[in-house]
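Hey, resending since the last one bounced:
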Amino acid sequence: MPDRPRLATTPLSILDLAHLRQGGTVEEAFRNSRALAQHAESLGYKRFWLAEHHNIHGVECSATSVLIGYIANATSKIRVGSGGIMLPNHAPLVIAEQFGTLESLFPGRIDLGLGRAPGGDSAAARALRRSLHATGDDFPELLDELRRYLGKPQTSQRVHAYPGEGTSVPIWLLPALQIYRSSFRPSQVLDRPYAMVGVPILVADSNEQAQFLATTSIQMFLNLIRGVPGPLPSPTKRLEWTAEEREMVNAKFGAAIFGGPERVAARLNNFLEETQADELIVVTNTYQFEDRLRSYELLSNLAKQAREEPQIAKTVEAYNRPELFTT
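The structure tokens again:
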């Protein structure tokens, strides 16, 4: 472990899916997303992203661009964006116009993260793309078209994104980390790889409390693989699952970090060392919104402590060496 933990220098961001909770309403889910973004901004988080999903009961972020505008309008500094927009679901011109509008309304604060999956099941893919033959294999061509719409106009260009043209909204892709780094080539945009890594994290006042609260996310995933997705369930002291389901949960949450502050700090620094992430984007799902706010607050405190500890150590060292204070 280096003298200065990577947590001290790694920007933190949030990924949100506008989850509905059992007994809650869609309006409440949207209000909570807005309140969370405002809370994150006050704590110094860098980005607040929303992810496009379809036909998944309990996940309310399908109109991603609309929600981005809602969140950006309620904040003033934090960057707001998509993590991501599933580009094969849309005409590139439409996305260029939507994000050009967002960038014009909130200049310098909009990110455009892109993926190639449908963001839902095959029925949703058919409804969105009108054909199951649209597998996302044309993603590179769609990406090139989108970048042209957001870039400087070309002489031969007949179709323009108004607004959007010339905005050069930052584009992020959702690739596998190892493939990205091994195949990276310098460009006008980046001279070296730059990766933001996502991970589920839940911080509570104790390890036991965190493990209890995390059963909400586990139950949500169990419901998904059982074919009965739904709103966030309340946490439980006893999970009912088969050995096969437990194995699937362990695979899904293999990188997840749930625990009290000390445990999370240690595991997170190891995770950052292993991945060499330039940024970290965190997803936290709890039944009670207050527990979610608390988790992000505790995580922010851990990063702050990591930044302050080296300075405290230097101050203590100086205090123990009086000759440094002589005139």
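The first helix runs from residue 26 to 43.

Sorry for the duplicate.
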